[in-house]
Amino acid sequence: MTVHWPAEWAPHRAIWVGFPSHAELWQDDLPTAQEEVANLALALAGAGAERVRLFVCGDEAEVAARHQLGGARNVEIVRGAFGDVWLRDTGPIFLNGGETPVAAGFRFNGWGGKYVMDDDDTVAEQLAAAAGVPLRPQNFVLEGGAVDGDGEGTLLTTRQCVLNPNRNPDWTEARAEAALGLALGLKTVLWLGDGLMNDHTDGHVDNLDRFVAPGVVACPIAFGRDDPNADVYDATAAALSDMKDARGVPLQVMRIPSPGRTTDENGRIVPASHMNFVIANEAVICPTYDERSAGYALEALEAIFPERKVIGLPSNALLTGGGSFHCITQQEPA
Hints:
- The chain has helices spanning 23-26, 30-45, 59-69, 87-90, 110-113, 123-131, 159-162, 173-184, 230-241, 291-304, 316-319, and strands at 12-18, 52-56, 75-79, 93-97, 100-107, 135-141, 147-149, 154-158, 188-192, 210-213, 216-221, 252-257, 278-279, 283-288, 309-314, 329-333.
- The protein has 334 residues and is of the alpha/beta class.
- It has one domain (12-333): L-arginine/glycine Amidinotransferase, Chain A (5-stranded Propeller).
- The strands form five sheets. It has a four-stranded mixed β-sheet, covered by helices on one side.
- A hairpin with a 3-residue loop joins strand 13 and strand 14 (283-288).
- Helix 2 (30-45) packs across helix 3.
């Protein structure tokens, strides 16, 4: 079967959102993380014009979700079993397969064995079944946040993650390109180097750079003189400037201010990123961490997406779990 992976800005029939459900993982951050996710779901359903399917685990999480949603009828709660909320990585990638949708399901090994939790390796099957879409299992490890597509057969990824021996030990660039090409209907894979400092995903590309239109890629520019990822951002922009997409068109690079140096309560650098935005049917929802840097980032996104409403929402509690809005979502193409 020939498959097509539509770009994220193509129309969606639904969007999945993972709801923080396990107190032992989130501890004191759980209520705030749940509030942040509920606000994202409401923004996607409202300004984003999305059919939102909120994936929750357990009775307490469902009660909390209904409370946070305040009776909103345009967000559907779907019960399931999962270890944590990162549906972009544990769930399938929904594709168009001829006249019918399909879901590519990949092996999941807890981000290279670092965070192995019960039921995370069954999320792809659960979401595909709930969506009424046949699952096409793939016999290799891949997280959805490790790849980004333009809808035209081009994929962006990082060597740090996809060629990491903790995923597929025997992979070379050629083997990876062959496997990804068959699974996702790709023509060209564009390789970048490292991702953000202290990113436990080993450098997911959705924290580093994103396609925002055919032939156009957004990536950060350092905010503040002490931005720990300044060199990575500049190296990424330089590499992208020398690349062409599957059509043979040179990439245009748009720079978006980063959140700057962001630390946790112990002073450790954390991988905060404005690149973790979600492109909805009629809006773009961007995670924010610092009011000043967020203002600049939202202005840049407004220039890139003039046809969509750009909304910034706090994501500091979610960040304590290692990710943000794009990490907890997965779209179903229309």
